[in-house]
Amino acid sequence: MDTGSHILFGVTLAGTALFLPEVAADPYLAAAVVSVSVVGSLAPDFDAAVRLKSRDAYLKHHRGISHALPAWPIWAGILSGIASWAWGVGDHSLLLFGFALAAVALHVLFDWTNAYGVQFLLPLRSDWLHLDALCLTDPFLILVHLSAALSALYGIGPHTPWIFLFAWAITLLYAGWRIAHHELIVRRVRRRYRRNLAVHVLPGLWWFRWQYVVQTEEGFEMGVLAGRRWLPFRHLPYSPPHDCIEASLRVSSVQTLKRFAKREYVSWAELPNGGYVVTWTDLRFWREKDWPFRAEVRLDGKLNVVAEEIGWYKRAWEAPYV
Question: Which UniProt keywords apply (predicted)?
C-alpha cells in the first residue's frame, strides 16, 4: 500500500490496544504503542534509502529482504526496544514487541494484496508474490480507517476500542471479498480466451472495473472488464527479433526488470541517427498511451550502449494503481 495508508493502518492498529486496561490507564504506554505501531507500519519501506544510489538499485531491492519473514521480528525487536527505553515502559516490552510485529506483518500482507507484489519468502524463495486484489491506495479502506480515527479523536460513536476493532473487521471482510472477486474475474477471462498461455487481472480504482492482459501464441490481448461489459483495448503481436534486443540484455536495468516481470515484453525502434532504442516492460502494467513501468536502452549503430534508464513513468493517481 502507499505510505499514507500504512500510517493510517498503524494508528488504527494502536487504537485496538485500548482494550488493555494498562494501556488505557498509562499515557506513556499508550504513546509507546502508537509509536511502534505507526513506525512498524512504515519500517519495511525504509529500504527506500537505496533510492539515493539509483532508481535501478531501488527497484532491485524494494519490497525485498526488508519485507521478508526473517526481518519481521528484527524490525519488531528494534522498535520495541527503542520505544521501551524512550517512553520508560520497559516492563511492557513484550506488549510493544507484539504490536510492532503485528504492524510489520500487516504492512507486508497488505503489500501482498497489490499487483506489484512482495518477496516475503526470501531467502528461501525469490518469487514476487502478489494477489492482484487491492489497489496501492484503496479509497474504501482509507474511508473506513480515517472514519475510525476521526470518530475516536472527536468522541463520536461507541467506546473507542470498538471503533477500531470494527474498522479492522470490515477490512478483513473487504480484503477477503476482493481476493475472491479477483479469482472470479480471472476465471471469466480464462473462459473467454480458452487458448491462453497466461492471464493477469489487475484491479481498477472502482470495485467492478478490472484490467486484464492475456498471453496467447499470437501475442497479447489487453482490455478492461467494467461490470459485465468487455472493453477490449488492443492486440499486441510479439516484437520481431533484432540484434539490438540481444545487446540490451547485458544492461543492468533490463536485468532488474526481467527479474521482476511476469509478462515481459520488448520492442525496438531505429533512430534517425542510425542507433536504436529498446524498451522493456511488464505488460501487466499497461495503459492506453504507453508502458508506465519500463526500462529503456539507447544504443548506437554498432550496438554499444549509450544510455539506460528504468522506472515508473506515471503519476500516483493514474492507472494502473500499483
Answer: Hydrolase, Membrane, Transmembrane, Transmembrane helix
The chain-wide mean pLDDT, for the chain, equals 94
Q: Are 25 and 172 contained in the same domain?
A: yes
Q: Are residues 215 and 157 in the same domain?
A: no
Whether residues 219 and 108 share a domain: the answer is no
Q: Is residue 297 part of a domain?
A: yes
Residue-wise pLDDT for 205-249, tens only, equals 899 999 999 999 999 999 999 999 999 999 999 999 999 999 999
CA distance 270 to 284: 25
SS3 49: helix
Which residue segment(s) compose the domain that 222 sits in?
195-237
Please tell me the pTM assigned to this model: 0.94
Is the same domain home to 80 and 212?
no
136-187 tens-digit pLDDT: 999 999 999 999 999 988 877 666 899 999 999 999 999 999 999 999 999 9
User: What is the enclosing helix (H) or strand (E) of 253?
Assistant: helix 252-260
Shared domain for 202 and 98, answered yes or no, is no
Q: What is the 3-state secondary structure (H, E, C) of the chain?
A: CCHHHHHHHHHHHHHHHHHCHHHHHCHHHHHHHHHHHHHHHHHHHHHHHHHHCCHHHHHHHCCCHHHCCCHHHHHHHHHHHHHHHHHCCHHHHHHHHHHHHHHHHHHHHHHHHCCCCECCCCCCCCCCECCCCCCCCCHHHHHHHHHHHHHHHCCCCCCHHHHHHHHHHHHHHHHHHHHHHHHHHHHHHHHHCCCCCEEEEEECCCCCEEEEEEECCCEEEEEEEECCEEEEEEEEECCCCCHHHHHHCCCHHHHHHHHHCCCEEEEEEECCCCCEEEEEEEHHHCCCCCCCEEEEEEECCCCCEEEEEEEECCCCCCCCCC
64 HSE (CA, 13 A, CB side): 15
